[in-house]
Design a protein that fits this description.
This protein has about 400 residues and is of the alpha/beta class. The chain contains twelve helices and 13 strands. It has two domains: about 240 residues, Type I PLP-dependent aspartate aminotransferase-like (Major domain) (Aspartate Aminotransferase, domain 2), CATH 3.40.640.10; about 130 residues, Aspartate Aminotransferase, domain 1, CATH 3.90.1150. The strands form three sheets. It has a seven-stranded mixed sheet with strand order 2-8-7-6-5-3-4, with helices on both faces. Helix 1 packs antiparallel against helix 7 and helix 7 packs across helix 11. The chain binds pyridoxal-5'-phosphate.
Length: about 400
Amino acid sequence: MSKPIYFDNHATTPVDPRVLEAMLPYFSDNFGNAASRNHAYGWAAEDAVEKSRKQIASLVGANSKEIVFTSGATESNNLALKGVAEMYAEKGNHIITAATEHKAVLDTCKHLEKKGCRITYLPLKGDGLIDLDMLRDSITDKTILISIMYANNEIGVLQPIKEIGKIAKEKGVLFHSDAVQAVGKVPVNVIEDSIDLMSITAHKIYGPKGAGALYVRRKSPRVQLTAQMDGGGHERGMRSGTLNVPGIAGLGAACEIAQKEMPEESVRLRGLRDKLRKTLESNLEEVYINGSMEHRLPNNLNMSFAYVEGESLLMGINDIAVSSGSACTSATLEPSYVLKALGLGDDLAHTSIRFGLGRFNTEEEVDYVAKKMIDVVNKLRELSPLWEMFKDGVDLSKVQWTAH
Ligand SMILES: *Cc1c(COP(=O)(O)O)cnc(C)c1O
């Protein structure tokens, strides 16, 4: 059996062969510890690390001194939130975030609540965007941090980051953004966006797993963090631990490639995504887009297919690797909390599919996926009594169901 077509690029991406090439020397020939100051092995490793810092900084408009290497975005998010909460505890204990953040932010917030922080979880509008007035109104003199993601990993919705940054600056509150899904996909600039802390990870941009970074602003304001890891004082004391030099070289190379190819690649992916959407919408009734199409990553499509059963849909398309908003595929029993935050009912959340397109997807694959989706949805609906009732004009919301 051949491998499924990979349309799950928000979960992770394959390592680009050019990235792998950039990493290889640091496993073997240049295996040095970047903290070894006394010999050429250490210097070569340090050079690779500093080169990567510059490549990352260039992609996001930062200074290379503002890049702190971590093991990935989960750690970056933890360091940003816990580091700020501890460092600025005397100033206040209030953090504002949103209901649709990644678990690495939400679970960190839960942890901080137990430690005495007060967290505001902003609700989302139906299109997946936060309400800026609500954000402004929830800031108090105890607010120390706003943490809002750049782009959502399920629905690809882009938040009004520049406006959030402006509000944060006006009010003298630090602004952290989990920008994992946005960096390398859409233009991100920490100066223009007034971002003070920003999380990124290599494996969502065709780099290796286990390598990430936190951007920490050094000027106006100079952000300070309480380290969450004690040790050798690496990364200006913010993150101790011997640096993952091959991973870091890979992250840098991934950023450089993304920066160079973004203008073309985003147009290509948007074209493929729009073709997929149009083909599905023009061949299937009762399909719904989840989240704003206007404020959205070019490579994301998230759609619900009414009157099919989520589990059967996934089984029917098992030669395509996608994610679903349905519980049955994940560890929990709840349907996607992101889709529920948009106001979706359980039924539509359960039959949602996230299509995440990436650098190595082709138009042939899009055509195949569209056709397969149409075939499977039609087939499932033929077997569905609910679909039949809907076609007969029965208003299903008024049907009195009786249990047997
Ligand atoms: C993948 C992802 C993370 C977690 O990143 P890791 O490097 O896997 O820890 C955090 N936030 C978002 C939005 C993500 O998509």
